[in-house]
Amino acid sequence: MKTTLLIIRWIVGLLFIFSGLVKVNDPLGLSYKMQEFFEVWHWTALHDYTLPMAFVMNVFEVVAGVAVIIGWRMRLFSWLLLLLIVFFTFLTGYALFSGKIKTCGCFGDCLPLTPAQSFGKDIFLLVLILVLFVMRKKIQTSVKPVAAAVLLFLATAGSVSAQLYVMKHLPFVDCLPYKPGNNLLDEMKTPVNAVPDSISIVFTYEKNGRKLEFDQTAFPADFDSTYKFIDRKDRIVKKGNGLQARIVDFSLLTVDGQDTTMEILGQPQPYILVFARDMENVNEWIDGFHAVVRSAADKQIPVMIVTADADKAMQSFKDVTILKCDATVIKTAARVVPTYFMMQKANIIDKFSYADKGKIFARINSVK
Q: CA-CA distance, 5 to 2, in Å (whole number)?
């Protein structure tokens, strides 16, 4: 039994460490996933707290994984892990059975799982953690207290430091569809084997005090103005396979609303798109931006700002092309405000945080 418990501890510990580290790589991604759940539950007041919650959860997953492997304070951590996995199982079960959440974000964007896979993974972990919980009093650590304290400190400090770094300098590993090497137009294409959901539009009307439901193919023969409209909703008749383009709703508009996406992405010469979702902290990066513009001008490389806050952008930048884009698209493409994209036609050649000005200048100077 001792060997079995050791194997279970390693499996649970490694899974939690892996899950935590994948999300440490991109804490904003988990924050956005939390917001997606809160929007479905109409808890949007919690949106401002999702990043601190994601930050703490990622650190805890890594620390808990280390604690389980070394068997440190299992009476405490078995309770914490049990509560956490019950919570995770509820979330993944909700995503699976409600159909309102496409992915749970358990392993971030680097290893996307379907709701069914996520739920199955959590059921598996729940069983293992229940075994550890029942046997928690028999688990003794062989690691000395000082060594355990050092390991847990390193796990905590490493997780915190890594998250602080990537929130300023972009993730260590870019798993988004907007990563360097990708072609935006290719990522916007629907897979050839994609099967969309079959949808039926269901209408609800009231007549003579009775509520009636019917779809778009079966309107009543006597339908007229005596029918009072109540509601309409989409009902899935047949589920598709869930495949869709990795990039959706991407468009670049001029400040007066004209779609210029294909014109911009068709430019033969290199150009730079600076994605800045908002202008709240523009004073932190405006000087560096102008320095980049001057350096790019020497190489005849156009620089354009892509933002969801065009009005404020026009107030701060007078002689720069401003393009409008949806805020959700921008926060997916660029985790840091702002993020510089070196482009060649629709190809993403490179991608940098504003904090890495040296790398941006070096990339510009490398253009021939």
A: 5
Rounded distance between C-alpha atoms, residue 33 and residue 170, angstroms: 18
| Domains of the chain by residue range | 2-169, 198-238, 261-365
Nearest of 335, 30, 20 to residue 176 by alpha carbon:
335
User: pLDDT digits over 198-219, tens only?
Assistant: 788 899 999 988 899 988 788 8
C-alpha 353/C-alpha 349 separation (Å) is: 14
Copy the structure tokens of residue 225: 């103005």
- Determine the 3-state secondary structure of 352 from DSSP: strand
Helix (H, G, I), strand (E, B) or coil at 111: coil
CB 189 within 8 A of CB 245: yes
Tell me if 204 sits within 8 A of 212, measured CB to CB: yes
Q: Rounded to the nearest 10 degrees, how much is the dihedral formed by the CA atoms of 265, 270, 271, 275?
A: 70
In tens, the pLDDT along 258-310 reads 999 999 999 989 999 999 999 999 999 999 999 999 999 999 999 999 999 99
CATH for 261-365?
3.40.30.10
What's the one-letter identity of residue 225? S
CA neighbor of 78 nearest in space, from 41, 126, 43: 126
Contact predicate 71/144, CB 8 Å: no
Packed helices 50-70 and 2-24: angle between N→C axes, nearest 10 degrees: 150
Cβ-contact 220, 227 below 8 angstroms: yes
